[in-house]
Design goal:
Layout: H1 15-25, E1 35-37, E2 52-57, H2 74-83, E3 88-90, E4 96-98, E5 101-106, E6 112-117, H3 131-139, E7 157-162, E8 167-172, H4 179-183, E9 207-213, E10 217-222, E11 236-241, H5 245-253, E12 259-260, H6 266-272, E13 277-282, E14 287-292, H7 302-309, H8 314-321, E15 326-328, H9 352-362, E16 368-374, H10 380-391, E17 397-403, H11 408-411, E18 418-423, H12 429-436, H13 451-462, H14 466-482, E19 486-487, E20 490-492, E21 494-499, E22 502-503, H15 512-515, E23 523-524
Parallel strand pairs: 2-11, 2-12, 16-17
Antiparallel strand pairs: 1-13, 3-4, 5-6, 6-8, 7-8, 9-10, 10-11, 12-21, 13-21, 14-18, 14-19, 15-20, 22-23
Helix pairs in contact: 7-9, 13-14
C-alpha cells in the first residue's frame, strides 16, 4: 500500500491507496451498483426545498433508541443519521468521505490517525462541537457496563486525544487501514460529552426530533442551524412502521408514503411497472441465515447444522422468493463477488445424500427440530418453509416457531438453539467478522468461542500483504463453513420503493435508501 512519505511523522494515506485498501477489505467490489427499475433519469435541476417526506419501514421495536451504542435496527440508523453526524460518511462504493472531519491521514503503519475537524459546527441547541465530544463518542464504547454493540470495534483503539481545538488523534494497538470507514458507521455518531439520557436527543445533524414514540414512529423537523449550507432540503420527515409487506407496498402506491423499505414478491413488478413509482435496488452482501447456538444442545451438534446446509434449495430461494435480487451464498458471510471470497470452496447445494449422511451422523433421530423465524429477519419465514419442505425427504421434522418482530432481537435471537438472523452489510468484512464471529461479541449469535478464529480475524485486519491477506480470509471462510453454525443460502439486495418525486437518493451498499443516510440530501420534486 503506497503512501506519501514524510520525515517519520504521520504521512497522508493517499486517496488512491486508501481506495485500493478498502476494495480489498471492504464491500465496494462485492456489489454491482444499483438498479432503479422504472425510474426516470437522475434529475439535473437544482434541489427543491420544502415539503414533508413520509417513509414507511419494515421493522418495528419498542426498544427504538437514539443512543448510538444501542443501535440494532435500520430504523435506529435512519433516526441517527437524521439527528447526528459522524466524522466520516460512507459513499456509493462503501468508502469513507469527510463529514465532521474535513480530512484524515495515517502514518506508514496505519496505527496513528489524524482527523482534522471542521470549525464552527454547532449542535441544534446552539452549543459548539468540541473535541471532548468526539473523544467521548468513540471511547464510550469501551465501557463494559454500556453494553455497546460496537465494543469489539474499539478493542484495537489504544487512545483518542485532542491536538489543539480542531484535531483528533487516534492511536491503535495494531494497524487498521479501514479505521476511517469504521468511524463512519452508525454507532460512532457524535453526541455531547457525558450524555446518558437520549430521550431528547441533541445533535449536529440536519433535523431535530419533533415527536418520538418507540415502536410507533418518529417525526423530524429541519435544523435551521445545520452546518451544511442549504441543507436539508425537505422541511419535515415522518417515519412510521408497516410490518406487512403487502400493506407497505400499498402505502406507497396509494400515496401515503413517498418511500418504503423492503418490497417483496409481486410488489416489485407492480411498483416497477407503475408510472409514478420506482424500485430502488442496491446489491449488497446482506444476508438472512439460520444460526446454531453452539453452546447448547441440540445446536452444539455440527452435523445437525450441516444437515440443514444441504437441505436448502438456494436457487429456488433466489429465483422465486427474492425474485432474482441477490446472490447465492455458501454458508459463510463473504459474498461470491468479493475479491476476498474463496470460490475454490465447494459450493453447497440441495443434496439429499449429504443431508442424510450428516443427519444419521448427528444421532438426532425422530425428535422435532425447532427453528425460530420472524418478520424481524426478512425472508426467514420463507427460508424456514423451504427447509421444512425438504427435511421431510430425509425423515427430519422441523417445526417453525414464528416470533413477533418487536421483541425478537432481545428475547429470541441467539437465545434459542436455532434462530434466524439478519445482518446488514458492514463497510468491511473484517468489521462484520469482529461484530458477529469473535468470542464475546454482542452479535455473535452462535456464541462461537474459537481462539484460532479470533486470531485469524485480527490478523486479517492488520496484514497488508495481499496474498497473505487472501489466505487468511480463505481460512476464515472454511472455519465458519465447516462449523455447522450457519446456513446462509443467499445474499439479498435491498429492494425499496420510492415515488418518482423523490430525488437525491444514491445507492450505498450498507443499507436501505442510500445506506440509511438520506435525510440531508433527498428532496421532493415539486
Amino acid at each position: 500500500m503506497s503512501r506519501n512519505q514524510s520525515d517519520g511523522g504521520p504521512s497522508i494515506l493517499t486517496r488512491r491507496a486508501f481506495n485500493t485498501a478498502t476494495l480489498v477489505g471492504g464491500l465496494a467490489m462485492a456489489t454491482g451498483g444499483a438498479a432503479l427499475i422504472g425510474a426516470p433519469k437522475p434529475a439535473r435541476a437544482a434541489p427543491t426545498r420544502g415539503g414533508l417526506l413520509r417513509l414507511a419501514t419494515h421493522s418495528q421495536s419498542t426498544n427504538d433508541t437514539f443512543d448510538p451504542a444501542k443501535y440494532i435496527y435500520g430504523n435506529d440508523y435512519i433516526r441517527g443519521t437524521s439527528v447526528y453526524n459522524s466524522l466520516t460518511r460512507l459513499d456509493e462504493k462503501g468508502l469513507a468521505t469527510p463529514e465532521l472531519a474535513e480530512s484524515f491521514e495515517a502514518n506508514d503503519t496505519a496505527t496513528h490517525w489524524v482527523f482534522k475537524i471542521r470549525k464552527g459546527v454547532t449542535y441544534s441547541d446552539g452549543a459548539p462541537l468540541t473535541m471532548d465530544d468526539i473523544i467521548f463518542s468513540i471511547m464510550r464504547h469501551k465501557d463494559a457496563k454500556l453494553g455497546s454493540s460496537a465494543k469489539p470495534l474499539v478493542a484495537n483503539i489504544k487512545e483518542v486525544k485532542a491536538d489543539g481545538p480542531s484535531t483528533i488523534i487516534i492511536e491503535l494497538n495494531a494497524p487498521d487501514v479501514d479505521l476511517p470507514i469504521m468511524i463512519g458507521t452508525f454507532q460512532f455518531m457524535v453526541v455531547k460529552n457525558g450524555t446518558t439520557d437520549f430521550s431528547k436527543p441533541v445533535g449536529t445533524g440536519p433535523f431535530t426530533v419533533k415527536e418520538f414514540k418507540p415502536g410507533v414512529g418518529t417525526s423530524f423537523k429541519r435544523n435551521p442551524s445545520y452546518w451544511k449550507n442549504g441543507q436539508p432540503y425537505v422541511d419535515e420527515i415522518e417515519m412510521f412502521h408497516v410490518l406487512d409487506a403487502v400493506a407497505r407496498a400499498n402505502a406507497l402506491l396509494s400515496g401515503d408514503a413517498h418511500m418504503v423499505t423492503e418490497l417483496k414478491g409481486t410488489a416489485i413488478e407492480q411498483v416497477g411497472s407503475s408510472d409514478n413509482f420506482a424500485v430502488f435496488t442496491t446489491p449488497c452482501p446482506r444476508y438472512t441465515a439460520i444460526q446454531a447456538a453452539v453452546d447448547r444442545a441440540p445446536s452444539n451438534n455440527p452435523d445437525l447444522g450441516l444437515t440443514l446446509s444441504y437441505l436448502i434449495d438456494r436457487k429456488r430461494l433466489l429465483d422465486t422468493v427474492l425474485k432474482g435480487q441477490g446472490v447465492i451464498g455458501n454458508d459463510h458471510p463473504i459474498m461470491a463477488t468479493s475479491p476476498l471470497c474463496d470460490n475454490n470452496l465447494p459450493q453447497r447445494a440441495l443434496d439429499y445424500d449429504k443431508a442424510k449422511f450428516h443427519f444419521a451422523k448427528s444421532g438426532f433421530g425422530t425428535s422435532t427440530l425447532e427453528i425460530h423465524v420472524s418478520d424481524a429477519a426478512p425472508f426467514s419465514v420463507d427460508i424456514g418453509q423451504l427447509l421444512q419442505r425438504e427435511a421431510t425427504r430425509i425423515g427430519l421434522t422441523i417445526e417453525l416457531k414464528r416470533d413477533p418482530a418487536d421483541s425478537y432481537w432481545n428475547a429470541v435471537a441467539g437465545q434459542r438453539p436455532y434462530t434466524s438472523i439478519t445482518f446488514n452489510p458492514r463497510p468491511t468484512y473484517n468489521m462484520l467478522l469482529n461484530l458477529a464471529y469473535k468470542a464475546g461479541a454482542a452479535w455473535n449469535f452462535s456464541h462461537i468461542n474459537d481462539p484460532a478464529l479470533d486470531k485469524l480475524i485480527d490478523d486479517a485486519r492488520s496484514t497488508k500483504d495481499q496474498t497473505q491477506r487472501l489466505h487468511i480470509y480463505s481460512q476464515i471462510q472454511k472455519s465458519i463453513q465447516d462449523s455447522g453454525s450457519i446456513t446462509l443460502p443467499c445474499f439479498m439486495s435491498y429492494v425499496d420503493g420510492i415515488s418518482k418525486k423523490v430525488k437525491g437518493l444514491v445507492p450505498v451498499p450498507v443499507g436501505n435508501l442510500s445506506g440509511f443516510n438520506f435525510s440531508d440530501s433527498v428532496w421532493l420534486e415539486s
